[in-house]
UniProtKB/TrEMBL annotation:
Residue list for modification Phosphohistidine: H216
Summary of the function given for this chain in its UniProt record: Catalyzes the synthesis of beta-nicotinate D-ribonucleotide from nicotinate and 5-phospho-D-ribose 1-phosphate at the expense of ATP.
Descriptive protein name: Nicotinate phosphoribosyltransferase
Alphabetized UniProt keyword annotations: Glycosyltransferase, Ligase, Phosphoprotein, Pyridine nucleotide biosynthesis, Transferase
Reactions this protein catalyses: 5-phospho-alpha-D-ribose 1-diphosphate + nicotinate + ATP + H2O = nicotinate beta-D-ribonucleotide + ADP + phosphate + diphosphate
SUPFAM superfamilies, sorted: Nicotinate/Quinolinate PRTase C-terminal domain-like, Nicotinate/Quinolinate PRTase N-terminal domain-like
Pathway(s) served: Cofactor biosynthesis; NAD(+) biosynthesis; nicotinate D-ribonucleotide from nicotinate: step 1/1
Domain Nicotinate phosphoribosyltransferase N-terminal: 7-128
Location of the Nicotinate/nicotinamide phosphoribosyltransferase domain: 163-388
């Protein structure tokens, strides 16, 4: 079966889950799947996907896995104890062929946020692997050749010795086997230039550092949980600071667009958080604006971290590193271009939160096509509240 451990997911699922356990254990949410790649007939494989989900919901954390989690400084004992009792419940998933678009599938996840938050990453990994094992023949030799070429370029180009990358590719990997095979190769090829992975299972297996803080859904949920919509980002960031007391200090900047984020990310947050993560829009423009914002709020840009994670490849990493080095600290998370680069065209699939406590929530991306919400009235209201134009 594809998923063989509940740790086979991204770290930020656990860090957000702990915050939910302690602060919003009763929140009820809904997630929705979307395939952005046209012409993909997933419906013919729906039985295979369903069987993999059944297996996923049979898994439990092992004693060894829980001991590993207890060793992560930012996870609290009561949360790990909770994980010892936890399992994913199939009753929260509704998977069916699309009634309106032949070949497409509809997948909704509805239930307590605390009990549904871990579904996203393994479900996407399942759908990816089911698709590729039925539609392509893996060429692992080609994958290794491409991987080594990327590593050689980064490792052997003068001036990039301090450029660091991490693997962020769990959700859209070609397969679990390739993901697990690729990580040691990358570590051996890059040495200190490779700093770890977002995948907790492989971090544990290969003694790598797990990376991650928060995802879009965390800030989206506060559109329904916060005191009022306009203060939702502030409420989410303050709740995060209360939970982690200065640890895991990378904020996500594009849930309702950069303009709105900068208005909310005031001097207090500029000094409190270690840095920010980019996930949509022009990264060069974004980085310049973030560094100017830190400086205007009396936070030394050289002490702050800019984390880039949107559609990266090695060439883009090197251009960004060359542009920002010496002005701040920079970090890079590469996903699909590492874990799904064996030849076949990767799928562009996502699972996004669309409701919290019965109210619509949304992400208004700085990149066209990345926004997701099924309530046009709410989108208009959200834009109005945050003073945004109608282009997103």
């Amino acid at each position: 079966m594809i998923i063989q451990s509940l740790l086979d997911t991204d770290l930020y699922k656990f860090t957000m889950m702990q915050a939910v356990l302690h602060q919003h254990p009763g929140a009820i949410v809904q997630y929705r799947f979307k395939c952005r790649t046209p012409g993909i007939d997933l419906a013919r494989f729906i039985d295979q996907i369903s069987a993999e989900i059944d297996h996923l919901c049979s898994l439990r954390f092992t004693v060894e896995e829980l001991d590993y989690m207890r060793g992560l400084r930012y996870l609290k004992p009561d949360f790990v104890d909770f994980l010892g009792l936890f399992h994913l419940d199939r009753k929260y998933i509704d998977l069916r062929p699309s009634a309106s678009v032949p070949g497409e599938i509809e997948l909704d996840i509805s239930g307590p946020w605390l009990h549904t938050i871990p579904f996203e990453v393994p479900l996407l990994a399942i759908i990816n692997e089911v698709w590729f094992r039925n539609t392509s023949e893996p060429d692992f030799a080609e994958g290794e050749r491409r991987l080594q070429a990327k590593a050689t370029l980064l490792r052997d180009t003068p001036g990039f010795e301090s450029c660091r990358i991490a693997d962020y590719g769990s959700r859209r990997r070609y397969s679990r086997h390739w993901h697990g095979h690729m990580l040691p190769l990358l570590r051996d090829a890059l040495g200190a230039q490779f700093v770890g992975t977002s995948n907790v299972h492989f971090a544990r297996l290969y003694d790598m550092t797990p990376h991650g803080t928060m995802a879009h859904e965390y800030l989206q949920a506060f559109q329904a949980l916060g005191p009022r919509l306009r203060d939702s980002q502030v409420a989410a960031l303050e709740a995060w600071a209360r939970e982690y007391r200065g640890d895991l200090g990378i904020a996500l900047s594009d849930v309702v667009g950069l303009e709105a984020f900068l208005r909310d990310f005031d001097m207090y947050f500029c000094k409190l958080f270690d840095g920010v993560r980019h996930d949509s829009g022009d990264p060069f423009v974004w980085g310049d604006r973030m560094l100017a914002h830190f400086k205007a709020n009396r936070a030394d840009p050289a002490s702050k971290i800019l984390v880039f994670s949107d559609g990266l490849d090695i060439d883009k990493v090197m251009r960004l590193y060359d542009y920002f080095r010496g002005r701040c600290q920079v970090a890079f998370g590469i996903g699909t271009n590492l874990t799904n680069d064996l030849g076949p065209t990767p799928l562009n699939i996502v699972i996004k939160m669309v409701r919290c406590n019965g109210q619509p929530v949304a992400k208004l991306s700085d990149s066209p096509g990345k926004s997701m919400c099924d309530d046009l009235g709410y989108l208009a209201y959200l834009r109005q509240v945050f003073g945004l134009d109608d282009a997103r």
